[in-house]
User: What shape does this take?
Amino acid sequence: MIDQSLPCVDASGAARTLRAARPDGLSGVFASLTPMQRDFLTGSGFGGRAGELALLPGDGGVVGAVVGLGADHGPNAFGSLATRLPEGDWALDAGDYDRAHAVLGFCLGAYSYQGFKQPKRAPARLVASAGSAAALSQARAIWMVRDLINTPANLLGPAELADAAVALGTANGATCFRTEGAALDAAYPTVSAVGRGSDRPPVVAGFTWRGSKATADAPLISLCGKGVVFDTGGYDLKPSAGMLRMKKDMGGAANVLGLARILMEADLPIRLAVRVGCVENSVSGHAMRPLDVIRTRRGLTVEIGNTDAEGRLVLCDLLAEASDESPALLIDCATLTGAARVALGPELPALFCNDDDWATRLLTAGTDRHDPMWRLPLWDGYDNWLDSPIADLNNVSSKPMAGAVTAALYMRRFIAPGVKWAHFDIYAWNDATRPGRPEGGEAQAIRAMATAIAHSLPIT
Assistant: This one.
C-alpha cells in the first residue's frame, strides 16, 4: 500500500477563506463579502448551484472562494475542491452544511493512486476543524481501500493481500493470524479448491481485536471478505472484456479491512474478528473443473456448476467458521455477482440480511451517511435452484435468473442457526471520475456499516 497523507492541516495563519452557498442562502454569503466581490459574483452569474466554484479577487490576487452546494447535503458536494481550488491552505467558513461531511468529501476528492504516476499538481489543503477526527479516520480507511483495489494484480497477490490484513491488525494492537499450505487445505477446503489453480498459493489471514473499554463478553462483530486478487473465471474462462477490471475482485476483502480500520480507530467497546480469503482464480492443470465435487468446512458437498462462481466458495468456509463463534453480527463483503449490478447498477450495493432489525439499521445509516445500499430478498422459493443430483448443493443456480439472490442463498447455507448476518454484494469501483469519487477502486457502504454498529451499542 502507498503511504499517503490526507490533504489537511491542523491550522494555518495563511489560509484563505472558503465559503459554501446554497441558492436560498446567497444573501447571507454575499453579506460577508466586500462590495467588489459581491459585484464579481453577481456579474459572473453565481447562483449557489451544485458544482459551481467562484474564486474571489482581492489585494494580491485570489483571496477566497465560494462553492455552490445546490441541494446536495452529502460529502460529495465538496468532492472536487481539492483539485479545483488553487494550491495552498483553505479554511471553511460557517454555513449550511455538515462540517464533517465537508472534510470527508474534500479528502475523498483529493485521492489519487500514486504507485507509478504522480498527479499533475498537489491538491489544495483544508484546515481540519475540531470535530473532524471521525471524518479523517473514514477518509484514511477509504484511501487504504482504494489503494488496495487499484494496485495491479502482479504486485498484489494472495500473500501481499494477507500481508496488508496482518499489517492493519498489527498497527492496531490486534492478534493476527495467517493460514496457508496444508493447514489451509484442512481448515478451508473451498478456499484451497479455488486457489490451487494458481502458482501463487491461497492464504486466509485476519485478526482478532478488542476495544480498550470492551470486556471479555463484549459483543463480537465478525467480518469476512472475498479476496480474489485476480479472477480469470477458471475453466469457465471470462472473455477478455470481462477480465479488464478483475484486479478489483478482492474489493470485498479491501472493504472489510477498511470497515475494520474505522471500527478500531473509533475504539468501540466491541470484540472484532476479521477474516479474508486471499486467492487467485487461474487456469492450470491443478485448477478445479466444472462438475468437480468438493467438501466444505461445514461438511456439505458442493458440485462445481461454474468455476467463475468462485467468490461464494472463498466465503463459505470463512462464514462457517465465523458463525460458529456466535457473533452478535456477521458481515461479509464481496464483488460477487454481475446480477447485482444489472439490478442496481454500480452505485448501489446489494444488501441481503436475515434480520429485519439489522437491515433497517443498515439502510437508515446508509441514508444518514450518504453511503447508500438497497435491500434484496433472501427468497426461500429459489433455494431449491441450488440442488445438485450428486452433491448437497451446486455452487450456481439451475435457472438463468436472480443470480444475486441465489448466490446469497448459497452462502446462507453455511450460517449457523440464530446468527444475524448481512451480506453486501458490491461493485467496489468507479467507472468514471465524479466529485469525491475518482475513477478506480472504491469503498462502498463501510461508513454506513460502521455507523449502524456504533449506533446499535450496546448490542445484546
